[in-house]
Design brief:
6-stranded parallel beta sheet; 12 helices; 4-stranded antiparallel beta sheet; alpha/beta
Amino acid sequence: MVGILSISAFVTPHLVTASRQIVRMSASKTRNPRVTLESLVIKPPSHPTYDLKGIIKLALAEDAGDLGDVTCMATLPADMVVEAHFLAKEDGIIAGIAIADMIFDEVDPLLEVEWFKNDGDVVHKGLQFGKVHGRAQNIILAERVVLNFMQRMSGIATLTKAMADAARPACILETRKTAPGLRLVDKWAVLIGGGRNHRMGLFDMVMIKDNHISVAGGVTNAIKSVDAFLQQRNLQMGVEIETRTLEEVKEVLHFASQTKTSLTRIMLDNMVIPQPDGDVDVSMLKEAVELISGRFETEASGNVTVDTVHKIGQTGVTYISSGALTHSVKALDISLKIDTELALQVGRRTKRA
């Protein structure tokens, strides 16, 4: 979002310092257009009950509490207007720009936000990639919530980009191992990083895992039950079954050859075997893929890292899923600074800019 501001401004001499200029403005501003999901280049995944705006309001209320930002109210005049700059403190893929726009708009629709990068773009350490202009109290009120979302999403997008590039020709997927309450946000970051989304939740895909198989009495019984359930409910959706051995793979294939089934994908779980030297043995995975021979989509799971994903992707598997994309993410270091020159000096001193 590029905010357009129509103002009359005058410099207030006693508020000018060597490192920044602070101005007071008249109230004649053009309101920023509200952010719409339809206008986004990389849209968030769909979810029937997820309230993204509600999550944003919850995050802001969590931070502001019942009194608001008491430090800002104590130290800053209510009408003071400043400009703050977003600064990347390490290399990575930027994500969360769209949600930052939503947060700023929720706090103060008159804030003017301008970005020099888009979601999914590369940023380098020391790069100023955006700025926000408006009332200082409102910028600082939004600051931490904006950064919490952006840093987490950018960390996810950065790792996803690295793994997606290495996995080709396979596609990289995340899992349901997301932060509670941030399912859609985490999965959105995966899309921004160039990955694909696995199921959104328990409702949009049948995924027959080990516990289901154990209770059902084996892979064949589990698939039969799912086929009957979907037919009875007149439901159409993807169906995946987890297999842990080549024998289970063969059993699934035998059943599918004998009867019509709703099965669409076979997960090949923990068929990537770690080796003492840090390498992985993918021969079992490759054999399973060859057995399936394109009759179903395939998904490799287990022992997937940045270092192993390329070798896994060369086996012919369709998808590679990694819980680490969201459950063990390292946030990308980003800051929002009013005094950008001083921030850069400190960053260079600490080797973070």
